[in-house]
Amino acid sequence: MSTEVSFTSNNLRIAGLFFTPEGHAGERLPAVVIGHPGGGVKEQTASIYAQRLADKGYAALVFDAAYQGESEGLPRGLEDPYQRSEDVKAAVSYLTTRADVDPERIGALGICASGGYVPFAAQTDTRIKAVSTVSAFDAGDAVRGGMDGQQGPEGLQQILDLSASMRTAEAGGAEPAYAPIVPESFEEGGEGYEYYRTPRGQHPRSDNKQLIRSLDRLVQFDAFRFMSMIAPRPVLMIAGTEAFSRPYSEKAVSQTPASSELFLVEGATHMSLYDQDEHVTPAVDKLDAFYSKALAA
Length: 297
Fold this sequence. Notes:
This protein is α/β, with parallel strands linked by helices.
């Protein structure tokens, strides 16, 4: 079952859903903070994983990032990796105030872009006792180098100039400018379109709009540079064998091989791990095994 909750992050109200096991009588539970993908909202894949973990006996907290979904923040659609990291830390702070959560048994799970934000937050927030990701994606790396890793200095300069021009325009009174996160056709958007722009995963508050001037903030973000700061706390990164994002998880795990584990779901793509039961089930079973050990009483 889930209940609506809220907490603050940098003085912004963050809207969340708190999941607990069926029949929970109030005893203190291990808990997992779950961050949603870039462009997503809490009701989509984050809630799927939250419910599945609640069924395994955990409390789970999902929330909309600041500037997105039902959470506060203007301009809407801002993707600020440092705010996203702060939202994760604020979610942990909220959990520590609950009488039904054991504050010494809190983990965090990041999906897609949050698979970069959650490890980044955990690098300096030692209250997060165990870190996991599903289909981790480093949004900063993707903006700097392009989705295919082939973007050169000229392309990066164009991105920075565009973002700067958007700031200048807004300062002069122009309305914030937006770009679609996922192309508006299956031919261009592939599985991203299939999940976000069809009834499979579509949600009215996941409006496929990102503030263009978010780009200059993303360029400076390096999700996995300081992964070693998480050690010796354990890290589990789950990826599909067929996922375009698999190299991000491989790279992150290689930086802390003694305390990190890569778990590959055979046949899974980046987004089949969002909601397809044949791939979500082995991922959740692995998460349960991971957290039952890492968050043991």
